[in-house]
Amino acid sequence: MCHSCACQIGPSMLASDLSCLKDEALKVVAAGADYLHLDVMDGHFVPNITWGAPVIKSLRKHTDAFFDCHMMVSEPEKWVDDIKDAGGDQFTFHLESTSNPEALIEQIRAAGMKVGVAIKPGTAVEGVLPYVSLVDMVLVMTVEPGFGGQSFMADMMPKVAFLREKFPSLDIEVDGGLGPSTIEAAAKAGANMIVAGSSVFKASDPAEVILFMRHSVEIHGNGKTTEELTRL
Ligand SMILES: O=C(CO)[C@@H](O)[C@H](O)COP(=O)(O)O
Ligand SMILES: [Co+2]
Fold it and tell me: According to its UniProt record, which residues of this chain constitute the active site (predicted)?
């Protein structure tokens, strides 16, 4: 499969030692992370609570890394301005969380952030088709949202392959259970934005894990590196 998206690896801060979030963020950026994935959970859309805009704002003081905010919340419309003010770069909402995706996409754009749309494992991939041209990224969840450290659902790969075939230059993110043993399946299906929590933060050498996954996407996905794309 040949597509033209740059491979990016985004560690999920949920798996970090939250007592020293800043140091953990700086550690993975130094280890080669392309962006940071920040899981916002409200205890209602998902059965877990993490953090909201205040924590993101605190972290923003210490890094200019790209913040990909994965909004696992019931009323995403309520948080667009706060996430923007906190320093969010991308607001990824769940398709299942809103009755008016177009309006939300417009609201996120008006606030000045990039837009991602996410689907849970039980949601059909066709559901995102009306919005692909309006967003910057589609996130195909490879676990049930709510917790880090779960097992990768390989049966989500047909969704990724379906999107990649239709949209060769779309940024497709996968999230949940990604690591050295599962990256190949995701890469072959065509994912180019890889969220990885436990596999990066529990590793003795996070840089090695990030590099391994990057190579896998570049080899198996035939994706282009950011440098290659700049040279085009
Ligand atoms: O959105 C979520 C979970 O809901 C993810 O971002 C996880 O935090 C990824 O963690 P690992 O599965 O890589 O440990
Ligand atoms: Co996430």
Answer: 39, 175
- Nearest-atom number in ligand 1 for the CA of 41 is 4
Q: Please, which pLDDT band fits residue 104 given cuts at 50, 70 and 90?
A: very high
Q: Which of 6, 8, 19 is nearest to 201 (CA)?
A: 19
Whether residue 159 has pLDDT greater than 70: yes
42 labelled ligand-binding: no
133's CB contacts (< 8 A; 6+ apart) are none
State if residue 117 touches ligand 1 by the CB under 6 angstroms criterion: no
8-231: CATH topology is TIM Barrel (3.20.20)
Question: Who's near 84: CB < 8 A, 6+ residues apart?
Answer: 91, 111, 112, 113
Å from CA of 96 to ligand 2 middle: 15
First to last CA, the chain: 19
Structure tokens at 156: 């989500």
**Would you kindly state where each structural domain of the chain is located, as residue ranges?**
8-231
For Cα atoms 2, 211, 65, give the angle at the middle one, nearest 5 degrees: 95
The closest of 41, 69, 220 to 145, measured between CA atoms, is 41
Rounded Cα distance between 84 and 104, Å, is 14
The annotation status of 205 as a binding-site residue, yes or no, is no
pTM: 0.95
As residues whose CB is below 5 A from the ion ligand 2, the structure lists 39, 70, 175
Q: CB–CB of 186/2 below 8 Å?
A: no
- Positions annotated as catalytic residues are 39, 175
Using DSSP, state whether 207 is helix, strand or coil. helix
